[in-house]
Amino acid sequence: MFIGNPKISIHELQVIVDNKNETMEFHLSNCKLRPWQQSDAENLTKHANNKKIADCLRDGFPHPYTINDAKNWLKNNLTNKNLLLAIVVNNEAVGGIGIIYQSDVYRRGAEIGYWLSEKYWGQGMMTEAIKTLVQHTFNNTDIIRIHAGTFESNRASARVLEKAGFELESIHKKAIFKNGILMDEHLYVIFSTK
Prior knowledge:
Layout: H1 10-20, E1 26-27, E2 32-35, H2 41-48, H3 51-54, H4 67-77, E3 83-89, E4 92-101, E5 109-116, H5 125-140, E6 145-151, H6 155-163, E7 167-178, E8 181-191
Parallel strand pairs: 5-6
Antiparallel strand pairs: 1-2, 2-3, 3-4, 4-5, 6-8, 7-8
Helix pairs in contact: 2-4
């Protein structure tokens, strides 16, 4: 687990994460969360190359998902200021989860994003990962609000957020245009109790 001052700011956290990124791991009941590595490219391609996954994510997550997509994503995000972690089962990266820190007047908030290989859907893995990363963020930063948006067609993701303690805050009507379809975005939120 992360060790440090529980009340540090995001900017101070970044310095710690950058210096100790290789050792930051969260061991959960059936997976672990750890920083992404260049060596994850093949597994990332294997598990991300699924239209069902891409259909539920923003267009920056392509389909097909090629080895070049994986290498480029890893190259651009290994030193990212956000907290982006691989979900690992049996030493294989099978998904991703991340806290995306907001800026300006939204600096006390963050967005959480995630995806998981279809092989591991329905096993409670993502709910536990979300709970762990949310608790870590609230305990170790000055973040007080974490939100996540889901497509109206992705009820499974909404259910995962609800199980992790998030509540539906709003519905953004016709906010998403994906695969030629206009749909609503459901915005879920959780607040720190500190």
